[in-house]
Amino acid sequence: MRGFAGRALGALALSGVLIAAAGAQTGERISTLADQHGVGITIYNNDLALVRDRRRITIPAGESQLALRDVSARIQPETAVLQSIGAPDRISVLEQNFNYDLLSPQKLLEKYVGRDVEVVRTNAVTGAQTRERARVLATNGGIVLRYADRIETSVDNRLAFPELPADLRDRPTLVTTITNSAAGPQDVELTYLSGGLSWKADYTALLNPADDRLDLRGLITLQNQSGTSYRNAMVQLVAGDVNVVRNEMAKAVPNQTADVFSVSSRPVEQALFEYHLYTLQRRTTVADNQTKQVELLTAPSVPVTKTLELRGEPSYYYQENADLGSRLKIGTYVTFHNRGGRLGIPLPKGAVRVYKRDNGGNEQFVGSDAIDHTPKNEDVRLHLGDSFDVTASKKQTDYKRTSSSVYDTAYAIVLRNAKNTAQRVLVIEPIPGDWTMLQSSAPFHKSSSSTATWSIAVPAGGSTTLTYRVRTRWS
User: Fold this and answer.
1) Which of 177, 183, 268, 376 could cross-link with 61 by S-S, CB 3.0 to 4.6 Å?
2) Residue at 469 is within a domain
């Protein structure tokens, strides 16, 4: 069947001749990308884009049909608006149809069920061709043909089709029935929302040897799986959480392998409503099934703060549980301020991947984290993993329930450091209810209404023990 399908499609001339023939058959004025003189796409974070497609076409006066080829295969047709540029009242749209039943050998056969085709046979010895008419009876899992004197269930020959069905298109096409007040060439713009276009931000950061500065680079990654290309397009990107009413009738398109290359033009940022808009400084072609990367920012030598943090759980403050862990993980975090230097711009959400050079000067991956949309002058905090050499153990050393709603509990936390340099660990304990610190071996501060935080120095190759007693009251 696959070989037949290839022969069937090869029998068709899918070219300008086919387009012209289709137009003549349906009486449509067909507009192709050759008519396009400008296109812009605004891409959002959530698989959504606004397409602005400008074309110069000749339309007769009165009522006619206009077929706009090469629109997105993921168009939301209910959002499509066609108007004449400079004269919005010149064109009125009476009806529009999106034809996403695209031409393929199988689709062509299905459209010819109940219709006649010609079976073309070639003599292997003489090369002479003969033709015989047959009717297509079925195409389910194969082809069934009725000849004048027999029925056959397979074809090893070429099929010739008399015409292309009007409702079968070789490209995604929006067909409109319009009325036009004045004949002649005019500029029109088709705007619509489409799926299949998306973008994201990706960041890479290189830590210095002291872990107190990093070089930050941001890239914007565009992906086009909309079923059409956007040539020499003005590309804009919206960062922010835009509420969208989802179209339940939208058809999914499978992922395709994409080519990756870069364009060196940093976007220009501006505020837009409650979002941020990034505009590429130069026009670029976003081809179908393509991934494109554009530089967002480069910020060298950004000051960072590295912290090691041991975080507790609120549950054991009202339960008796002596052993709370013998080798607890201590998280590793780096934090920087989005201001100063080449920073201080709104950062779109995305993944931040952090690297550091080893003793041989080779960059090694040391962790990654995702950031949300981050305004300027805000902190960016990254959890890169857990410390290998700094660990902790924790015990509940005393537990007393002094009344039905009051608990006195005591704890010992041993912090161990296998590094050859001293380390500082933040011990962060979420304490529930109304609580009072009765005793502590080290100073703490109440970092929130339900959190006590200690900053504990741990010597190189040694350990430090933190003990404390707390009273909690429950209403």
Assistant:
1) 183
2) yes
